[in-house]
Amino acid sequence: MSFQLNARSYTISDLAKEFDVTTRTLRFYEQQGILNPVRQGQARIYSPKDRVRLMLTLRGKRLGFSLAESKELFDLYDSTAGGDEKQLRTMLDILAKKQADMQQQLRDIQRLQEELELAEARCRDALARLHTS
């Protein structure tokens, strides 16, 4: 099948530049089943769907989604039998887990901050005692 590059398709360099990622990253996402470019010889030709998937994958990554979680959502979306409801329920489950994880991280950060403040206060007290001796 011959595929011509047009205004609604992208080369690996186009997407790498647009999203500030390496071509190696795009090839890795292809290996993971996130992207599915058409091959024309050695060249990869990406569709608008691939571009959207890349954008959503990178956004998900910033929000703490793993590639496996992103792929699971894409696969659910692509399936025809009840994909929408199942995708939404899965998304809600993932979001709830992410929120719980973030709450735990926030508690951990607050605890660490308190410990650092206590250590700082002890150091300042010790330093003050050295200067008054």
The gist of it:
The protein is mostly helical.
Fold topology:
Elements: E1 10-11, H1 12-19, H2 23-31, E2 38-40, E3 43-46, H3 48-62, H4 67-78, H5 83-132
Antiparallel strand pairs: 1-3, 2-3
- Arrangement of strands in the largest sheet: 1-3-2
The level of helicity is over 70%
- Tally of DSSP β-strands: 3
Q: What string, H for helix and E for strand, traces the elements in order?
A: EHHEEHHH
| Overall number of structural domains | 2
Q: What is the CA–CA distance across the termini?
A: 86 Å
From the helix content, strand content and strand pairing, which structural class follows? mainly alpha
- The CATH architecture name of the largest domain reads Orthogonal Bundle
CATH classification class of the largest domain: Mainly Alpha
Q: What's the overall average pLDDT, rounded?
A: 87
Give unreliable regions as ranges. none
Total helical elements: 5
Shape: elongated
CATH topology of the largest domain: Multidrug-efflux Transporter Regulator, Chain: A, Domain 2
For the biggest sheet, the summary is: 3 strands, antiparallel
β-strand percent reads 5-15%
| Alpha carbon gyration radius | 24 Å
- Quaternary arrangement of the chains shown? single chain
Pfam family, one: MerR_1
Organism: Marinospirillum alkalitolerans
Protein name: MerR family DNA-binding transcriptional regulator
Domain HTH merR-type: 9-76
